[in-house]
Amino acid sequence: MWSMIYPIAIIVTSNVLYNICTKSAPAKVNPFAMLTITYLIAAAVSFTTFFISAKGKNIFAEFAKTNWTAFVLGIVIIGLEVGYLLAYRNGWQMNTVSVTANITLAVVLIVVAFLFYKETITIKQIAGMVLCAGGLVLINI
User: Fold this and answer.
1) C-beta separation of 21 from 85 below 8 A
2) Closest among 32, 62, 69 to 46, alpha carbons compared
3) How many domains does the chain have?
4) 78 lies in the same domain as 56
5) Cα(45)–Cα(116) distance, rounded to whole angstroms?
6) pLDDT for 55
7) Using CB atoms within 10 A of its CB, is residue 94 exposed (0-12), middle (13-18) or buried (19+)?
C-alpha cells in the first residue's frame, strides 16, 4: 500500500512547491536564465543522488542504456516550465492554472492512450471527460 501512496505524496508535495516557486518568480527575470539556474541545481542533485542510490555503478554505462526519451524529456520539461511561468506572468491565478492544465492533460491523455497505446475508453471515462469540460468552464468563469 505504501508503495502506491508515497509516489503520489512526492508528486503532490513537489507540485505544490513547484507552483509556489513559479508564482513567486521575479517577473523581470528572463525565464530561460531562471531555468538555467534551476536545471544546473537539478543536474547536481540528480548526479549526486545517482551515486548515493546506485553504489558501484558506472554513470556512463547508465547513460548508454537511455534512448531518445531522455533527450526529448529535457526539451519537454522546458516547455512545461516556461508554460507555467508565462501563465502566471499573464495573469493566471494559482487556484486555476494547475487545475485547468491538469484536467486538460487528463482528457488529452485518455485520447492519446486510446490512439497510441490501444487502451480502452470506457463510458465512465467519457462521462468524466464531459464533467471535466464542464468543470473547466465553471472554474474559469
Assistant:
1) no
2) 62
3) 2
4) yes
5) 34
6) 76
7) middle
**Domain coverage including residue 131:** 93-141
> Does residue 88 sit in the same domain as residue 101?
no
Report how far residue 84's alpha carbon sits from residue 92's, in angstroms, rounded to the nearest whole number: 9
Q: Residue range 47-53: average pLDDT?
A: 93
With b for 16 or more beta-carbon neighbours within 10 A and e for fewer, the 25-36 pattern comes to beeeeebeebbe
- The pLDDT score that the predictor gives to residue 30 is 96
**Element counts in the chain: helices (H) and strands (E):** 6, 0
Verify that 32 and 76 share a domain, yes or no.
yes
Question: Do 11 and 54 lie in a common domain?
Answer: yes
Rounded CA separation 15/37 (Å): 19
